[in-house]
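Milestone 3.1: sequence recovery, worked example.
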């Protein structure tokens, strides 16, 4: 019973469903009063949604961490042999790391990393 005593937090999905239902109800009322006003409300809501998503800043927490010790790292390339590091011809300052897994000789794993081309 001790596990049952914990306070459960409300789901974010449940809150989103409530907002969608309330918004849909309000939109239905506007459409019932005047179809033109309903269409205008949909256009305004879409414009506000696009504006909001364009102005919203992206969190740095989901950004890929910088490479350590001059070489990129990911779960896929752990234990790979470094084959080649070349500067990108199209992106200034971008390095292309090519690694080969020991168990798949005909496979190349590629990373694109922003870095100092002159330092390597």
């Amino acid at each position: 019973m001790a596990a049952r005593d914990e306070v459960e937090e409300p789901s974010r999905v449940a809150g989103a469903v409530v907002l969608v239902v309330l918004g849909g109800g309000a939109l239905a009322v506007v459409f019932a009063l005047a179809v033109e006003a309903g269409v205008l409300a949909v256009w305004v809501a879409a414009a506000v949604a696009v504006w909001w998503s364009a102005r919203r800043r992206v969190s740095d927490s989901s950004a890929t961490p910088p490479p350590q010790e001059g070489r990129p790292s990911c779960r896929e390339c752990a234990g790979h042999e470094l084959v080649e590091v070349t500067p990108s011809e199209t992106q200034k300052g971008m390095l292309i790391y090519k690694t080969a897994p020991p168990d798949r000789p005909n496979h190349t794993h590629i990373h694109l990393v922003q870095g100092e081309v002159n330092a390597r």
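The chain has a mean pLDDT of 78. Strands lie at 81-87, 94-100, 109-114.
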